[in-house]
Amino acid sequence: QPVQVSLEIDEDDETDRDIFDINEALGLNLFEGDIRLDNGRPERNS
Amino acid sequence: IIGNQYRWPHTIPYVLEDSLDMNAKGLILKAFERYRLKTCIDFKPWEGEANYISVFKGSGCWSYVGKRQGGRQELSIGANCDRIATIEHEFLHALGFWHEQSRSDRDDYVTIMRDRIQAGKESNFNKYDDKTSDFLNIPYDYNSVMHYSKTAFMNGTEPTIVTNIPAFIDVIGQRIDFSEYDIQKLSRLYNCSSSLSFMDTCSFELPNVCGMIQNTEDNADWQRITQVSSGPQTDHTYTGVCQETGYFLHFNTSTGNQGDRAVLESRFLYPKRGFQCLQFFYYNSGSETDQLNIGVKEYTVANPNGAYRHIETIQGSPVSYWELHHIPLNMPNKFRVVFEGIKGSTTSNGGLSIDDINLSETQCPHHVWHIRNFTELLASSPLGEAGSLYSPPFYSPEGYAFQIALYVNGTTSPFNLAIYLHLISGANDNTLQWPCPWKQFTMVLLDQHPDIRQRMSNLRSITTDPNEVDFSGNYYWDRPDKVGTEATFPNGTKFMRGPRSGTSVFLTHQRLKSRDFIKDDSIFILATVDDISHLISTEPNLTATSAPTTNQVATTTTSMVDVCIDYGCKNNGTCVIVDRKPICRCPAEVDWWYMGEKCEEKGTRQDIAVIAVASSLCVFGVMLIITIVTTCCLKKKYKKQMQANRSLELKNATSF
Questions:
Q1: B630 - beta bridge partners?
Q2: Of B38, B20, B30, nearest in space to B460 by CA
Q3: What percent of chain B has pLDDT over 90?
Q4: Would you call B546 helix, strand, or coil by DSSP?
Q5: What are the backbone dihedrals phi and psi of residue B299, each rounded to the nearest 5 degrees, phi first?
Q6: What pLDDT is stored for residue B557 in this prediction?
Q7: What are the pLDDT digits (tens) for B407-427?
Q8: CA–CA separation, B190 vs B187, rounded Å?
Q9: Which of B72, B385, B414, B564 has the highest local Cβ count within 10 Å?
Q10: Which residue from B minimizes the CA distance to A36?
Q11: Do the Cβ atoms of B314 and B294 come closer than 8 Å?
Q12: Which one, of B603, B540, B597, B605, lies nearest residue B570 by Cα?
């Protein structure tokens, strides 16, 4: 399916976002921001 | 992370899942190339190995730390994660690295400002003791690609991490490339002694000139010097740092006769991959008829003394700056690189100079955009369109014309370098496919460090998606004479420039002024265009795969699909083609696996335990029988002997 975009694409939406900003904006609650832990272990330590 | 169970083999099997964006797929392969250049870590398409990394487009950018021994190990490169340093960062996690600021000695180097951290996010600033995490005897690295930036998880505007040496506050959090210490740490963790694609580097600082030799059949020599009155005034290695310190090689053409030759040969080089890129800096202060010939001497069984092959001639008007040259080589056998200077017919006041040579088994960039007097541009360029610089028109290997636009002082923020790609109208437009399908345009701001292994060049890629449309319903990557606007080259020629795609936050001025991005008052933007349409389908479970290509990507081939369908792997086995024959790769987990020609048999850890116990019992039983039989035999033997002795004793007693 065609994707609609404006006449200019700024891949970063004019913002210098780090890995942690991207994950935070998605509401991910990963360990130290971008680390997955093994199944059965909590994503964040208490 | 401490523990050998977390280490991968030096060649890591991977799968690029089809969910990934095309740009991400291409960039992951480029990140692998950086690993190959700087470390001994290599990557290969998964062929049924028990453990492998499966890269997919999940939500966000994340990875596990180290090998988890769980078969398929996920690594997510989600939306906006398709940046080369982000990919390097996530793969470093997968290889066994935590974040730099979580090392056990971090409090000596940074201060965590707890009151500035968002509520509930404090656990992101963990520190591990030296029983869990090993910093491998490498100093704390503010420049690590694994370090948080000063703004990580902050609740206001004040930094959450303050460096104990204030000069490093804006250094932390770089997302350009591996730092020198990142490479050292990775090399120590995986016992690397060499890398896969690096071959040689030479800045001529040492008198042994990196083992290069002067050919004896010429009539002039290259000289190792620090300065030539007519230029260069300094070498390239230390330009802007020290004068009369660094050395370069010079062939003086201001004296001698027309046709005089100076031939320099590298030491023997042993290729592994069959393709190489020779990169060097060149200064011509001689005449427009002086020549620099680049060639190779290839050593084979048929030519044990080496067969010379000319590759390229560099000739042109004298200039007053160092130029950058790339020469692609395709050497499968032992070889030497040959630099041949030839004095031309016209008067020369100087000569030919070379410096900072690098040879690696990588692809050369297709184009170099050299921007001179850059410091002045940085100081004077206005914000926005008025401060834009457009590259000369370049052509991709297929013939698409394009232009790079650089905004020295940014498009929106004054302290950022912004970079964009435009397709432009070109000579081949009528014969090309439109909208331009799946071409990955890579733009690299070169870090001009003399040693390619220590460079941290800033790279961004733009991929043309033929399905993208703008708000008017036009295809974004359609013919520039259809969707573009009129523009004019400096010589007055009119052309059409398509819409732009890129980033307004390519690099901050602060980072631009660090390292060797600006040297000899010049920057170099390297441009490469790769056709990545073969990456549309990269998952191996599409029934059949062909042998890996040079980019080591598994690609599907229709003719082989039928062979695999007929072959019929059982129990979800994956059919792969090896040497044009179908082979089943069987699924396996830690506790069970399938085996057999078509994965028809199941094995479990329990089976092994049963076999081991049964074997032990069997051996024990046999040994017990042998012992009983031996004991019985010995008992019988000694009984007979004792009886014989007793009768003898009785006989003797009677005779007395």
A1: none
A2: B30
A3: 78
A4: coil
A5: -110, 120
A6: 35
A7: 998 877 778 999 999 999 999
A8: 5
A9: B564
A10: B64
A11: yes
A12: B597
Q: Which amino acid is at B410?
A: G
Would you say A42 and B73 are in contact if contact means Cβ atoms under 8 Å apart? no
Q: Does B469 touch chain A (CB under 8 A)?
A: yes
- pLDDT for B578 equals 64
Sign of CA dihedral B450, B530, B555, B14: positive
**Which residues, other chains included, contact B413 with Cβ-Cβ below 8 Å and sequence gap of 6+?**
A14, B504, B505
Q: What are residue A8's phi and psi, to 5 degrees?
A: -135, 135
Residue A42, chain B, CB below 8 Å: the answer is no
Tokens 């636009």 belong to residue:
B405
- Sequence length of chain A is 46
For residues B430 and B437, give the distance between their C-alpha atoms in angstroms, rounded to a whole number.
15
Neighboring chain B residues of A6 at a CB cutoff of 8 Å = 470-471
Can you tell me the mean pLDDT for A16-25? Answer: 94
> Which residues of B participate in catalysis according to the annotation?
90
pLDDT at B368: 98
pLDDT at B654 (0 to 100): 55
- Decide the pairing of beta strands B11-16 and B42-45: parallel
* B377, burial (CB in 10 Å: exposed 0-12, middle 13-18, buried 19+): middle
Segment B327-360, tens digit of pLDDT: 999 999 999 999 999 999 999 999 999 999 999 9
- Distance CA(B178)–CA(B41), nearest Å, equals 13
Which residue positions in chain B have pLDDT lower than 50? 542-561, 656
SS3 of residue B535 by DSSP: helix
CB B343 within 8 A of CB B290: yes
pLDDT for position B385: 79
Which of A3, A7, A12 shows the shortest C-beta gap to B503? A12
The whole-number pLDDT of residue B611 equals 83
Token pair of B73 as six digits: 């190990």
Give chain B's length: 656
For residue B454, the one-letter residue type is Q
| ipTM of the complex as predicted | 0.85
Structure tokens at B109: 């180097």
Distance (Å, whole) CA B311 – CA B335: 13
Contact A9 B502 (CB under 8 A): yes
Residue B273 burial by CB count (10 A; 0-12/13-18/19+): exposed, middle or buried? middle
How many beta carbons lie within 10 A of that of residue B248, not counting itself?
Answer: 28
HSE-up of B309 (CA within 13 Å, CB side)? 13
The DSSP letter of residue B66 is S
